[in-house]
Prior knowledge:
The structure holds two protein chains of two kinds.
Chain A: H1 3-9, H2 12-21, H3 26-40, E1 50-53, H4 55-71, H5 73-77, E2 87-90, H6 117-124, E3 129-133, H7 167-174, E4 180-184, H8 191-197, E5 200-203, E6 224-228, H9 231-241, H10 259-263, E7 272-276, H11 286-301, E8 305-309, H12 317-332, H13 354-365, H14 368-380, H15 387-410, E9 413-417, H16 433-438, H17 444-449, E10 453-460, E11 467-473, H18 479-497, H19 508-513
Parallel strand pairs in A: 2-3, 2-4, 7-8, 7-9
Antiparallel strand pairs in A: 1-3, 4-6, 5-6, 5-10, 9-11, 10-11
Helix pairs in contact in A: 1-3, 3-4, 9-18, 12-14, 12-15
Chain B: H1 9-15, E1 16-27, H2 66-78, E2 82-83, E3 90-93, E4 103-106, E5 113-121, E6 127-139, E7 143-147, E8 159-163, E9 170-176, H3 186-204, E10 216-226, E11 236-241, H4 244-263, E12 271-276, E13 281-287, E14 297-298, H5 309-318, H6 323-334, H7 338-347, H8 350-358, H9 363-381, H10 392-403, H11 409-420, H12 426-433, H13 441-454, H14 456-463, H15 470-480, H16 487-497
Parallel strand pairs in B: 11-12
Antiparallel strand pairs in B: 1-9, 1-10, 2-5, 3-4, 3-14, 5-6, 6-9, 7-8, 10-11, 12-13
Amino acid sequence: MTETNELIRLSAAALAEKLAAGEVTSVEATQAYLDRIAEVDGGERGINAFLHVNAEEALAVAAEVDAIRAAGGAEAEALHILAGVPIAVKDLIVTIGQPTTAGSKILEGWHSPYDATVVERLRAAKMPILGKTNLDEFAMGSSTEHSAYGPTRNPWDLDRIPGGSGGGSAAAVAAFEAPLALGTDTGGSIRQPGAVTGTVGVKPTYGSVSRYGAIAMASSLDQIGPVSRTVLDSALLHQVIGGHDPRDSTSLPDPLADLVAAAKTGNVEGLRIGIIKELHGEGYQAGVENRFRDALELLKEAGAEIVEVSCPNFQYALGAYYLIMPSEASSNLAKFDGVRYGLRVLPEEGPMTIERVMGATRAAGFGDEVKRRIILGTYALSAGYYDAYYGSAQKVRTLVQRDFEAAFTVADVLISPTAPTTAFPLGEKLDDPMAMYLNDVATIPANLAGVPGLSLPGGLADEDGLPVGIQLLAPAKEDARLYRVGAVLESLLEAKWGGPLLQSAPDLAAAVAGPVETLVGSQEAK
Amino acid sequence: MNTDAILSFEEAMEKYDPVLGFEVHVELNTRTKMFSSAPNVFGDEPNTNVNEVDLGMPGVLPVVNKTAVESSIKIGLALNCKIAESCRFARKNYFYPDTPKNFQTSQYDEPIAYDGYLDIELSDGTVFRVEIERAHMEEDAGKLTHMGGATGRIHGADFSLVDYNRAGVPLVEIVTKPIEGAGSRAPELAKAYVAAIREIVKNLGVSDARMERGNVRCDANVSLRPHGRERFGIRSETKNVNSLRAVEHAVRYEIQRHAAVLDAGNPVVQETRHWHEDTRTTTSGRPKSDADDYRYFPEPDLVPVVPSREWVEELRATLPEPPAARRKRLQGDWGYSDLEFRDVVNAGVMDEIEETIAAGASASIARKWWMGEIVGRAKAADVDPGQLGVQPATIVELAGMVEDGKINNKMASQVLDGVLAGEGSPAEIVEKRGLAVVSDDGPLLEAIDAALAAQPGVADKIRNGKVQAVGAIVGGVMKATRGQADAGRVRELILEKLGVTV
């Protein structure tokens, strides 16, 4: 293993330690990641995790951190623990100085005039931003195949999906193209990609991370969160981006408990961990179920009390989600009309009225999945249907929240598989939206209720050798519990495996350079 | 072009009973916009008072302006409304380029203020109670300017320009319940109602309340039904009627138009109407049916507004005196008779007189100028008196010149014309037009000699002690000096010259 190879495989926490100790510079680390991106991301069988690489600015920030460290003194002392640790940002989050596309043609070439709050916080911590990562268009999908810029490949098997919508962020971290990334999670877009790529992803409590500057899909469900290779790394990043923001009215006023300390607690003794009866078993792949059982066993051995809880209304969660999410999305995406920014398409013939320009722009700029959800949402909000669809869905949402409340009276943390299956082959579910939507069945309830969820690697499925994700759920504002339990489970699993799961991933450099097999493109690709 | 038939108002009233309804939009004069920190300023260079929120950039979020909520509560309290303990915003979804997000953030089924009333005093002193359904918060849209067409409307235009400075300006929309029973007083009530709203928001200090700038905009709903029928007729909604007189005229016109439609046995079309000040008519806008589907749903980017009862009571305690009480107080302070005061109110110059008195004029001088000089000119120009642009300081200056004998009343009236014509300040106009009362004795003495010579008999009578005959000579001098002489001084000089002491 080369030095570069070792450098990029360090956890963010370990890299931060080496930076602080002066054993490595941020420019060296940042350059190592940029080299890795150049090596594995492009080409016909490249990962395609990045839509934009921000080399110049990233290296400039890295050099600035190095200079501050070299100079020493108060400014060096004041550096954030993650200063100089590079990060990738999902291309749904706006950034000054780089394009933001949301994975859509309708925003191709658009540059934001402002930074998202989380990006401001990354800049304040002096974390070099490596670039913007691929996603399903406007975060609508579970496979990243709905990106207008081609699908991202799963580093474990290049012919499989990396999950979605945040497949780019998860794949970048899994492929050692970045130690950390930001994702957004509306129905599982951080956690499900984490599960199928063998990485860690956290959906924080709704309102605990500012949404200002995250292009909205469904405002009441969206939440920005960390993507990483270890539980502790996610805790470190979560603390950078979290906290109140006056520009987001739904932002919680009070900070969360110390998440890094929680990740370092090191025990789960006496904690009650609840298995959600409705979120495993039937419909879940056998290998997924087996790894889930293993995790329960380890936690039990570590002194946790395993209980079973029932959340009977979760069976309606997916249906409610697919009414609330498209309803909000249909309204949130109305602003993309070619009038003020982004793509503008003029009708080929006929009068040049504003309605027709808006129509032509949206027809050409949006992909099929986006149009499907806009149509669904428009219908659900229509007079005469509102009560039956949007109204009923909101009632289900309340029932899901009550199920969580009841469950958390008997359990401190809930546990389930993150996704019912491992990564499926590219193209397999593109023509079957229902099958695609079902992939989020275990992650959606947390978004409906606003509670936090964490996915961590649970091992490889017996039948296909692909990563399985374990999901932990906690009451709102109790994100610290996720990090406490997650870190313990992670260390027990790694002890069992003899190291991190990703160490058993295939050699990527060889794979992406390998022969081109039958390509399965995105429906909207190129 | 307008080809609608109308009935005479009297005939319309004989046959039908009008039902009114008003939606008055009040632009709040907060420092920043409803949901963003961009400045809320009128008249600046287009698209300068905007930030990423106002332009609906990807990723932006709204934050409610607390001062706007405070102003809305004050308006609600002044309209005797209940103030909601918790209320939400909703999204009103429709595609239009003046709406940057393609939805308007507005309160819908949960207004901040509801169930109020306003007592309106008509010109003869009758008090008419208008029930207020609700007052809710929303944001204004941008301003579209249609270029190239003949009408200035979107139809026929080559292209349109959008100014987003107004996008996001806080609005309070005040909606009445259906107003029944006004009968032939309906047009007058319409004007008085809007005048009362304007007065309230101005006194509260929550709006600049300038109708000509669109700070207060009225949509007037009119429907007719045969006398004795309970069910309402089909209504029309005349949009953006932007002066008090226009509100009165628009309601009157729509009553006459509806009556003609109904008389011809046709159904009234439910639609919006455009008001045309030049012809004092309305034309058809777009059809407006109850089936318009804006796909309202609660705005998920905002949390509910929950005004604490303590806050509401604090605001209630800061409210200025209600208009009726204020009128009573002002009448007492100014010493006007009931009739004088009612004329002032009906002429719509009470605020102006108050300002003029505050600027230093006496109550009687202020009334004399506004009622005697300005109201007539406004009527001739077909505008509201306040819209003529007469500054209180101008009146104080003119009145001072008359009092000092520099000019007389007749000249002062001419100077006012000059001020209105934009010729400058009263002092400048007096100077420019050479209007000063002649007080230099030289030219006067010449004129007196000439007048005495012309009427030797009269001069003799005066010499013989018949002092009252001096008026004839004074008249001659005044005529000769085209009224510019100071009559008092002329009298003195004549008597002096004739050696008469009084």
